[in-house]
Amino acid sequence: MSLHVDSGPSTRAPVPPSRRHGRPRPGRTFLSWLDLKAAPYLLISPYYLLFLLFGIFPLGFTLWYSLYDYDLAGTVEWTGLGNYTALLADSAFWNAVVNTLGMFVIATVPQILLALLLANALNKRIRGRLFVRLGVLLPLVTSVVAVAVVFTQLYGRDWGLFNWILGSVGVDPVDWKAERLPSWLAISTMIDWRWTGYNAIIFLAAMQTIPKDLYEAAAIDGASRRRQFWQITIPMLRPTMIFVVLNSTIGGLTLFAEPTTFYGGNVHGGSNSQFQTVSMFIVEQGFREFDYGYAAGAAWLLFLMILIGSLINFLLIRRIGGRK
Amino acid sequence: MTTLSAPAETRKPRVKRTGGSDLWKATPLTRIVLIVTIVISAFPLYWMVVIASRSNREATDIPPPFLPGGNLGQNIQRVLTNEDAHYLAGLTNSVIIASTVTISVVLISTFAGFAFARLRFKGGRILLLLVLVTMMVPLQQMGMVPLYRMMVSLEWIGTLKAVILPYLLNGFGVFLMTQYTEQAVPNELVEAARVDGASTLRIWWNVILPAVRPGMAVLGINTFMLTWNDFLWPLIVLTPDNPTVQVAINSLNAKYGTDYVLIFSGTAMSVLPLIVVFVVFGRQIIGGLMEGAVKA
């Protein structure tokens, strides 16, 4: 930092590494003071302006709306926590919660395991590295709507490819949309197809930062590859694992496009709402029933679910990684 | 390195290793995993083309067709002239929305990233922390109702600005550009520019911008893809006669549920531009993704 010693009578204050720069000193013009003092705030102001308008404002208002009762005729009435108590007693809401959690678990657990396996394979010395990685990431580029359109056709009851394959090994055709578990499975495969490769690439990046000596030392000590994977790779991946799992938690609990497209663009989620998620429930209440207060309340409960889910997953991963 | 037993693999040693190099050798299992993955990754996209180039009669054949047919042009024609989907309008709107959002987000994030990474000011840390915290909030779901009402009272429903403006809020972009600026621009460089009498804006233009361009590219590609692919918000604020491409596909899907070739042709046309972008910029996308992952 002795850089400035010889700089002589510079017209502008050099920025000292301390955090107390920018005070006007004698000899500085007002403009340069402004430049140092106000410029940082000007630079971040566009973001925070948007943040205020499209972040803070809607969040606050969602809370506000959730305390009112709206009906189709347009009358608005204060109801306090009425929407929340009604939601907690609403079997349709609980159905959506169960569906969301169910699909989240069915989709996420295999996805993380497959991503780890895939990352481990990608970490080997392979030919055509870029090509392989591009192939793995290809699904990420495909829009969720496109994924859902293709898979919905593949899962078709009468002419779907999957039922044809099942039929050729002697299994009766499955009506994927009609029942709860098959529909959850079908939707989960759409999620996994899109995100497994992405998570694998994230894991791969973290794997490559693990010092190679660790493995070599372990190999000299006679540890098998499998043992190395569980005892070196997995614990070292813990921070990344937390990132991936939290990401999947937010994405999984706000699931919308796949199940909506699966039912032909309808947010009802099947004839008995057997795959309606909480996000779809919010849209249905807010924009089909025009019960804004109820939808807003459901949105806050969803947020609560995400917080709790993230916390549980965070603690879980910490334990798994910290066991050894 | 000289003791490698597999001559085919000497092409490009990635990392120097002292011994035990067979630890990183691809086993048959590795190859199987990778090949199966790529096949699974590519198959739905291939299938999209197969169905999009067939007729509806062939699409519902048993066994299903596995090779592309010759009806692609005709099917695309049907999509473009379909009166319910407004597909061309959707395509145009998506291009406008995604480009506007991308340019704005990249600029806004580069500004903020510069301030957070290389300028010190009161409240900077707390403000940055605020960005990180709100990245956890599912704003689309949480803010949907008030934002919709806001657009109604502004009479913006059905207009592109109703889609564009909320998308400009992108905490990830600020986070990424802060990280990138910290890594790509040494503090000394900024200080030296100050000594030479450069104003903050000039430093941004002459010092920061040239150094963070790769980061901007990664953020730009990322933002473009996310915006292009998003579905929920446009579905709520746009009308079917002035859609984005995803909403147009949704209209096709809702109205012509069993007309697979029509829906698939529309879908294929919406995916193709992104695949081209992806293949062209693939190296940067993967590089950016992996770099970001290690830092997060």
From TrEMBL, chain A:
CDD domains for this protein: TM_PBP2
InterPro entries on file: ABC_transporter_permease (IPR051393), MetI-like (IPR000515), MetI-like_sf (IPR035906)
Localization terms from the record: Cell membrane
CC terms in the record's Gene Ontology section: plasma membrane
BP GO terms, sorted: transmembrane transport
Cell membrane listed as a keyword: yes
TM spans (from-to): 47-67, 92-118, 130-155, 195-215, 236-257, 294-317
Family statement drawn from the similarity comment of this UniProt entry: Belongs to the binding-protein-dependent transport system permease family.
Listed name of the protein: ABC transporter permease
Record organism: Planotetraspora kaengkrachanensis
